[in-house]
Amino acid sequence: MKTTAHKKPGKIETRLSMAFMAILLIAGAGVFMRQFRINPAVVALRPESHQQALPSDPDQSAVVDTTGSKLAPFSPPERFGPDTLYEKINGRADLYLSSGFVSLSTQRFSMDNAAGNWVEVFIYDMATPENAFSVFSMQRREGARADGTVPNAYRTENALFMAHEKFYLEIIGTDASDALQQATGQLARAFVQTHGGATVASAPGADMFPASGLQAESLQLVTANAFGYEQLDRIYTAEYLIDGTRLTAFVSDRQTAAAAAALAAQYRQTLVSYGAASADAPHPFEGAAVIRFFDTYEIIFSRGKYLAGIHEAGSLEAAGSLAGQLAGHLERLGE
């Protein structure tokens, strides 16, 4: 019986096969390494002491003490860590993880054991008051109204949202009835009373902005990639209304004057690299950079350890006026 000889692969086939195998090896290595990678913002913001996993037998006590009230737990508590957060809030987990998330505790409470009406409490441990305020401010709902139940809180139709110490809370009812709205307030007060009390009325970063023209409840803390620029982290922003013109001011405590000045220069250069140009107009004060980008203006400066400026202003005159107020305020703050 005649045997058939195997054709020896040509050089091109051999090289293609080798290239294909190399691609598979690289892809496999990438997948293997990626499972150990963590968002840099998470590493930077999460304290080392909190990087351990949650206990295998978590505490089953109620997440809020409602003793003496008409509210009672309607479900057992649930607890989630960085690796399981997506199971509860799939699609929004990245925001919390990039802002220092440690753990989430949730539980439902009912009024007089009425199964059809209940409130669910979400308690996010964000490790620091700044991290808690960041997610609180970044997720502020449109149409929300300030709430005096506890400091740093606002309401929507059927829910109360608040930041207290290192915690961010969402307390959400099944409907907008008065009874459930009262229940959200009771739960908020009960939580505050067992977690240090209402000791801090002002939000983190509020003292860095002058009061004149400041729009209430507009303060935000962006922990990473502010204005789309990777190096801008820990940026506080606030909205102003100056002579009918809306403006956005920003401030960041960079710890040292050298760091603040260096970041101001880097941010300016980045804008220029994207097509912005120095504005052909008088600068509001010495050391301020005025950049024009299409039909808006950016004013960038540093005062002591603070990086500051005005973002995307439509009026250079109004922006310059606010920048001057902000610079003077930061100078006094640093004295």
3D structure, described in words:
With 335 residues, the chain is of the alpha+beta class. The protein has two domains: 45-193, Protein Transport Mog1p, Chain A, CATH 3.40.1000; 206-333, Protein Transport Mog1p, Chain A. 30% of the residues lie in helices and 25% in strands. It is built from eight helices and 15 strands. It has helices spanning 11-34, 40-45, 85-89, 93-97, 129-138, 178-193, 257-273, 316-333; strands at 71-73, 78-80, 103-111, 118-125, 145-146, 153-155, 159-164, 167-173, 220-222, 235-242, 245-253, 277-278, 289-293, 296-303, 306-313. A hairpin with a 2-residue loop joins strand 10 (235-242) and strand 11. The radius of gyration is 26 Å and the shape is elongated.
Write the layout of secondary structure elements.
Layout lengths: L10 H24 L5 H6 L25 E3 L4 E3 L4 H5 L3 H5 L5 E9 L6 E8 L3 H10 L6 E2 L6 E3 L3 E6 L2 E7 L4 H16 L26 E3 L12 E8 L2 E9 L3 H17 L3 E2 L10 E5 L2 E8 L2 E8 L2 H18 L2
Antiparallel strand pairs: 1-3, 2-3, 3-4, 4-8, 5-6, 6-7, 7-8, 9-10, 10-11, 11-15, 12-13, 13-14, 14-15
Q: Quick one: overall form? A: elongated
Number of strands: 15
Mean pLDDT: 82
- Termini separation (Å)? 100 Å
Task: Return the string of H and E elements.
Answer: HHEEHHEEHEEEEHEEEHEEEEH
